[in-house]
Structures are given as C-alpha cells and as structure tokens.
Amino acid sequence: MENTQTEKLIIVGSGPAGLTAAIYAARGNLSPLVISGREAGGQLMLTTDVDDFPGFEEGIQGPDLMARMRKQAERFGTRFINEDVVSVDLKIKPFVIKTESLILYSDSLILATGASAMWLGLPSEKRLIGKGISSCAVCDGFFFKDKRIMVVGGGDTAMREAQHLSKYGKTVTVVHRRDSLRAQPALQELVKSKENVSFIWDSVIEEVLGEDKVTGVKLKNIKTGQISQVEIEGLFIAIGHKPNTDFLKGQLKLDERGYIAVNDETKTSVDGVFFAGDVADKRYKQAVTAAGTGTKAALDVEEYLEKLR
Ligand code: NAP
Question: Between β-strands 273-275 and 203-209, what pairing exists: parallel, antiparallel or unpaired?
Fold first, then answer.
C-alpha cells in the first residue's frame, strides 16, 4: 500500500537506539514514525535481568525496559509500524522505504537496526537462549556467580567474554573449533593467565543439554570424532556479531564487515541519513551507548531538517 504523505523522520529499528531517538525526536516535534521490525525491542528482548542500565537500582527485565521505552516514545506522539523494512531507496529525495506491506516516504532517516549475535544454529540452543545461554557476558555474567561456564569461539569477542566471566564463574571453559585462537595475542595471554579458565580445542557443540535450563553440552572433537559430555550451568556464544544492514547494500557506504561507515558523528555517507547504536558500533555495544547515539542522531536530524526549510 502506498502512503503518499512524506514523513519528516522515519526511524528504522526499535532497540534502545531507535526508541531513544524517537523520544528525543518526538519531543522536538518531528512526529517520528518508527518501523519497529519483527524483532521489536532488539537484543535486550533476549536478556533477562538488566542491572547496568542507570536508573533501575533493583535491576529491570530486558523486555520490561524496552516496553517502558516504547511507552515513553508513544507518550510524545511517536507512531509505530510493526513490520520489517524490506528495501530502501536513498538515491532519491524524499527517501523511499518499503516495508512488508507499505511504501513510505521521508525527508530524513535514522538507521538503528542494530547487530545480532551470531548463534550456532542448533535447535537445543534456540530453546535455551535466556535460560542459561547468552551472548553477552557483560549483561548476564553476574548471574553465573560460582557456576561452571562455557564460552564458544576463538576471536577477540570470545576472549573478552571469557575474561569478564572469569570474575564470576567457578570455572570458565573456552571451546574452540580449531587448535589456535584468532584473538589478538595480548588478549590470549590475559585470558590464559586466569586460574579458573581452561580450553577445549578442536571441538564443536553438538547439542546443548537441559530441558528448562542448561545442564551441560555434548561436544564433538572434530579431529578424532570423539563425543564427550561436559556439565555446565552457563553457555556464552561468542562467535561474532552481524550488523543488520543487508537491506542497505548498494544504498550507502558500509565497511568491510557490513557496519554502517561513519561519516561524522551520526552522519552516514548519504546526506539526511543518520545512524544510531550497534549498527555502526564495533566496540561498545551497550544499551546505554546505543541510547546515547540515539539522542545524538535525533538532535542531528533536527538540525538537518532545520537547514532544509
Ligand atoms: P571473529 O574474529 O570473527 O571470531 C569469531 C570466532 O568464532 C572465530 O574464532 C571463529 O572460529 C569462531 N566461529 C565462527 N563461527 C563459528 C561456529 N559456527 N562455530 C564455532 N565457532 C565459530 O569475531 P569476534 O571475535 O566477534 O571479533 C570481530 C571483530 O571485532 C574482530 O575484528 C575483532 O578484532 C574485533 N573485536 C575486538 C575486540 C577488542 O577488545 N579489541 C573485542 C571484540 C571484537 P575460527 O577462528 O576457526 O574462524
């Protein structure tokens, strides 16, 4: 369906970055339209207790935090479309945004589609995400105090996760599919120096065990074919993140890993198109930092639209 009205601002994505941008833009009278996506709320929807978001001294559940942010954005007049964006045309103005059922036009855009953690793709993994399986040690590590934890991956992310988790876990076992790590040497040394961290090489997870919560994993040594079982309570998948930018290919500059290339502050390579949050963040990836760039993007849009007048 075509809606011929041109919006002042469309925000794509509804995690902390997109919703914070919406709160600021709505309060700035831009009447933003948020395309919230089918995975509305972003990665915090996969997290249980959030203890590091300022303002919630007792902690808050990830989905509750996102519901509150959405209500706050609605309170100031933000409108929502609960669909995914299928494609965009950023080569013409106003920009064209196609969702699953709509064609929309907008003078400006904030891209806040985030990055999704890559998962192993096992059915048992899917069932236990949030029930002992996580992809964020900073978010969930605390809940595995004195527990047996496993980390999958051999890159910098896996080493950072293992380093962080070594502060909590009784044991932290890193499982890697090869016999050498890809991570930078300094990080490798740091992790290897931790007394409670050990490594299992040349191995992959065949199955995560447990009905309602993780109780262990079935491992396969890919050199010998040997199957073994290890009891654990926590499993952290750290095999990389993938920015959600497939729909942007050919429309604006992406870096070699698919993240939006940053021009200046929240500007992208296309005038009038801004970004917020993990879609351009290779380093921090925190709800608070995402919210922070959401604020910046909304203020940058305000200035951009002001100049257009
Ligand atoms: P990465 O470097 O791509 O490493 C991913 C790791 O996961 C690799 O060891 C890979 O194994 C393994 N892996 C991938 N798919 C797998 C699968 N299906 N099953 C089992 N293992 C799998 O990703 P990353 O660690 O997230 O790092 C991404 C980028 O961010 C890198 O450029 C890194 O330097 C940067 N980074 C930097 C820091 C820092 O502190 N400076 C922290 C985090 C990330 P193989 O080794 O066999 O391919």
Answer: unpaired
Q: Is the pTM of this model over 0.85?
A: no
Q: Whose CA is nearest to atom 1 of ligand 1?
A: 155
Mutate which of 160, 182, 184, 284 for ligand 1 pocket (most atoms within 8 A of beta carbon): 182
Domain count, the chain: 2
Tell me if 90 sits within 8 A of 268, measured CB to CB. no
Establish if 62 belongs to a structural domain: yes
Question: Residue 103: which CATH number?
Answer: 3.50.50.60
pLDDT digits (tens, 9 = 90+) for 17-42: 999 999 999 999 999 999 999 888 98
CA of 30 to the centre of ligand 1 (A): 40
For 138, 158, 232, the CA distances from 308, given in Å and listed in that order, are 42, 46, 58
Q: Please report the atom of ligand 1 found closest to the CA of residue 239.
A: 7
Residues serving a catalytic function are: 136, 139-140
